[in-house]
Amino acid sequence: MKFRILALIGIVFSFASASFADEKQISTGFFSNKAVSGYDTVAYFTDSKAVKGKKKFKTEYQGADWFFASQENLDFFLKEPEKYAPQFGGYCAFGLAMGHAVSSDPQQWKIVDGKLYLNYNAGVKERWEENIPELIADAISEYPKVIGPYK
Question: What letters, b where the CB count within 10 A reaches 16 and e where it falls short, cover 45-64?
Fold first, then answer.
């Protein structure tokens, strides 16, 4: 079973990413400009859960559309977007550590040292949680090669 999961992760990473520093700064869908698939990034911090945002509470930041569950959360984000935006532009933290820009599942998240990290799926998140500090360092190192200058 582990071999199948690892093989699947490898296939996903090879088809879902490019290592040419030409990725968008913010991960959005192929047919959408929604950051974090339309989830409210402030809610991870205030509600400790993934909450879908609403169209009426929307802003543009770094070329993507960000949605929030309330005006209050939108206001928090507008005051400090760098505090609430996920690390690595919302790309999968584990995938980036492996040198690939991979989309993430907003249901697979963790706040570490006050920063929001997302992962591709539950299995990948489990692997990432085995060595978070080293994998964050690896992702920071790989970011310029995959996405561009690290912000």
Answer: eeeeebbebbeebeeebeeb
